[in-house]
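User: What would this chain look like folded?
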Amino acid sequence: MNTAVKHQSKSIASIVAASLVVLGWVATAGSAHAGEIGNALTKTVDYGDLNLDTEAGARVLFFRLRSAAKEVCSPLAGRSLSLHSRWQACYDKAVASAVAQVNRPAVTALYTSTFGHSPTG
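Assistant: Here's the prediction, encoded as structure tokens.
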């Protein structure tokens, strides 16, 4: 039974990572040339080692998701207000999408308490 849980968690981790990649690409697509779009960053978020039924496990995953979103969206970072706005939009969408896909109450509660709304809107 423990093996099945680990496999399921790793499968979900792959979905979460894919979500972060796509959102990073979408956020950059508006200003990137066609040849640059393939340069989107990826970040795999593994959490098969965590028990998401505990607050501690949920906090660790939430930290990992936020860190991955920062990394995926980092090409948009800049000093200008417009670049910062695009980075923030990318980051917010990446974290919300990842939390929604994980779909675990403790992780969703952390997101809601941090961002002031549910990950789905």
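DSSP finds four helices and no strands in the chain. If you want, I can go into more detail on any region.
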